[in-house]
Amino acid sequence: MNWKVLAGWHADEPELARVRDGLGPDAEVQGLSWSPGLDIPYGAERSEYLAKAADADAILTWTLPDEVVEAAARLRFVAWMHSGCDRLPLRSMAERGIRLANVPNAHQPAISEHAWALVLACVKQIVRKHAEHVAGQFVPYWRDGGVGSVLHGSTITIVGAGQIGTRVAAVARAFEMEVRVVRRNPAAPTPSADRVYGQGGLHEALRGASVVVLAAPSTDLTRGMMDRAAFAEMDPGACLVNIARGDLVVERAVYDALTCGELGAFASDVWWDYEDAMPPGRHFSTPSRLGVHRLPNVVVSGDQASNAYFVRDVMLESGVSDLRAMLDGRRADHEVNLLAGY
């Protein structure tokens, strides 16, 4: 059978050649118009995307708005070259029998390293002290506000025990921290963890934690989990790092906790606006409606955790491999449970 496959981004000829080589002769591959002046090749021009999706059996992409899924009447397979799937219309895809694969392992080393960069930036107050020194201001090291904290002997709570959370936990052990992990199945093996909690034990796991790292997917069970009650359980002045999805954190709650001193610092690579821009534009319209990103005890990196050399190549290779498996009628290595959301 000849499969019609759409590369749903402004793919150049070398990229299309890689996709065609990986999928083989029974896949007719086309992409969206490419030009060397494109600012964001991962994006897509609306009308062309909709037109080419109409007869596609499969879509391999970084961008997939609901309207494209609706327009793709023949769509049977999606290779989604991200880890998180919360932007996709999973319910309608499940009803139509569309199979989905993601790339959960493509960028986990880069993101877990980035998580520790954010943790250390918060705990050591690197960004604020750098700015003050550059401005010629002396930072008194003997007063509150000038004294850094130490990770050794403190408690870290990691929410999510996938590849990223597991790597974060391994590094925490090297800092000789007490490592707590919150995961959906607390009975599963959890390397490097001193204590493991189910999702119902989140508040117990947060109690007394000096550092909290969010590395869980955005699902009905996790959205809004970090609210006023959750912050009240953490150690006063604790550091929260989010490398998962912005909607795990309640925006008003984190703003209030940061401005009243209940939360010492917040660092995030992800925010509260995840709408894909078509035509291509800024990925986030603004990091925070309330100005969380402007607070002095906040570190912003803005969707940069996976922005590392070779990550894009690994994403493409993984997406092509899983799409080939689905076209062959096999289960993809990274096939997503549409009802669970990951």
Question: Please, could you describe this protein's structure?
Answer:
This protein is α/β, with parallel strands linked by helices. The chain folds into 2 domains: 3-105 and 309-327, NAD(P)-binding Rossmann-like Domain (Rossmann fold, 3-Layer(aba) Sandwich); 108-300, NAD(P)-binding Rossmann-like Domain (Rossmann fold), CATH 3.40.50. It has 11 helices and 12 strands. The protein has helices at 13-23, 46-53, 66-71, 90-96, 108-123, 126-134, 163-174, 202-206, 228-233, 251-260, 311-327; strands at residues 3-7, 27-31, 58-61, 77-80, 99-101, 155-159, 178-182, 195-197, 211-214, 238-242, 263-268, 298-300. The protein has a 7-stranded parallel β-sheet. It has a 5-stranded parallel β-sheet with strand order 2-1-3-4-5, with helices on one face. Helix 1 packs parallel to helix 11 and helix 5 crosses helix 7. It is elongated and about 70 Å long. The two termini are 29 Å apart.
Give the helices and strands, then pairings.
Elements: E1 3-7, H1 13-23, E2 27-31, H2 46-53, E3 58-61, H3 66-71, E4 77-80, H4 90-96, E5 99-101, H5 108-123, H6 126-134, E6 155-159, H7 163-174, E7 178-182, E8 195-197, H8 202-206, E9 211-214, H9 228-233, E10 238-242, H10 251-260, E11 263-268, E12 298-300, H11 311-327
Parallel strand pairs: 1-2, 1-3, 3-4, 4-5, 6-7, 6-9, 7-8, 9-10, 10-11, 11-12
